[in-house]
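Cont'd.
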Amino acid sequence: MIELERSLLRRLRDRDERAFRELIDGHRDRVFNITFRMLGNRAEAEDVAQEVFITVFKTIETFREESKFSTWLYRVTVNHCKNRIKYLSRRHDRDRDELDETSNGHNGAIGSPPPTAPDRALEGAQMEKLLQEAIGNLDDDHRVVVVLRDVEDLSIEEICEITGLPDGTVKSRLHRARLALRKKLQRHVGDES
Amino acid sequence: MSDDEEVDAAQAEEVRKALSGMQKARAPDTFAQDVTSTIRKRSAGRFFARRTFGDRVPFGALAIAAVLGVCVLGYLMWASQTGSLAGPRDRGGSGHAGSGLQLTP
């Protein structure tokens, strides 16, 4: 661990507000990109990214400096994203149940899942939109490895540390996730043409 | 590697390239401010340390001030006639009435 990082950590433990701002400025875009790619929604991503930094500030004493600080930070990020995905899917199911009850079977289309909200930030980039939607359709274990490896360009070693998974599992999940994405993209392109 | 595996690998590589070419999303400009204000709100202002000397205690400056203080005290004691910071007492007989014990034969 470099001396600069050590000194920043010391200041963070002293609850130095300036150190907190330095930490946010240094990592906010990367954390935000991970949350955005994991959740596919800007507002949710921003909310989760904020929660990530709040958790980091509250639990900085528990960071034991055995791994890189960024690895720990990304682990917190991934855990928050997974929790939010679970929460959103539960809420989505509940909302759908409520809609089913209110529609009382008059319109079967109401019960079907709503189309994914268009990604305004990336409007115009059709491929990117398709990719984002395809990532959103992966299950969260596959989504994590694809986002960390292919979008964030982290090493397999780092991903193993972040997820706590063995090397082989990460690699096989990554391969399966890529193939699943490929299939989803092909289906999309096939539907449109 | 079989033909199927080769096709799989090529397709996976294609997806990897597409994913790595995705734009990087940037956090809003007010992000840091939003986070710190949320922390302040939730902790009712108790989270961030408030220090008399700002963010860092100037231990160096405090040490120099302490050494100077000790030097000044030392000089005053050295310059004093009694070797004490208190002035010399008047031990003459012309004290104020009742200021000392008077013995009568």
